[in-house]
Design brief:
about 375 residues, alpha/beta, UDP-N-acetylmuramoyl-L-alanine:D-glutamate ligase, nine-stranded mixed β-sheet
Length: about 375
Amino acid sequence: MKEPAEIREQVAVKLLSQVKAASHLKAFVGLDGFVDEIVHVVDKRQDADNYQRLDTISALSERLGGAAGQSTNIELVVQRRKLGGNGPIMANALSRFGIKVTYVGSLGYPNLHPVFHEFARRAEVHSIGEAGHTDALEFEDGKVMFGKLVQLKDITWPNIQARYGRDQFIEKFTTSDLVGFVNWTMIPYMSDIWASLLHEFCPASSAVRKKIFFDLADPEKRTPKDIARALGLIGSFEKYFDVILGLNEKEAYEIGEVLGMNTSDRHRPDLYKLCSEMQQRLKVNTLVVHPVTYALAVSNGVVSPMDGPYVGKPLITTGAGDHFNAGFCLGKLLGFDNEACVLLGVTTSGFYVRTAQSPCIDDLVEMLRHWVPRDQSE
């Protein structure tokens, strides 16, 4: 069995040899769009310029619980304003790898919102509606996302055809090396869009099967019936594409419950077993799941796990999963095996949370060669 350092070096060498190949790849991604404000919650304020933040979600919970039956004031301090939404973050990361990206989504209408201008300089971007808004409260033990997303009701198949164009959509959908549909949970009509695509113009079979990536994005608030329908539609795309379904750990257990699977045991080996059975039950080519400290991919029931790098004090966590997805899909597009794809996913995510920047391929190679294991401090 190869040592982790040997695997990382082999992937780094292989990745460097594929820079030109990546530049010839095409990705078509959609359909959401948000303006994200990354926020800290104030615990104690010393003066106009200095304060101590609430470091944990549990601390915020205690503060809110103590106000029950009374009232309270919570101060939020915006750390940065950035492009948001699972689709734009993932697509922006793909474009940083040199992939030719086309994005269709709700990024401001009739004019593109300024937070997406830099993204639009690297990718072909088309907006079909107003962007949503997210207040992302970040803590050391996780994040709480407050979303305003009524605007996403405009993401419908008729509106896509009217504001982007049916023929253009068909061309991109059927010819791109990677298609990505993400944030199903927040897009009320996404399942209807998928059903229309399956009915109207899925691509004909070819010698080289293209990839299609799906991300449900925290489906807890959707009904089991809605989730089951979405999973059925995702599985139906396997007839035409190699389907990749991406989940975080919480989502994996939620999907397992919808499928009637045993989710009571939640140690790492139990998750391996659950994901192996889930991949075969869903009949998708690849299931990929990314907990906080590691990730795994499953194809043909075989689990390929990989630990992530150590990041002691993340600069940002909102968008980490979307960067993982971009790195994983890069590996898939380049023909890497699941182990290498997972490694690229955790490396892309790790670079992003360290720097608050999306990496290019050279950045990934550098990080693979200067890896900080999780059992070491920085």
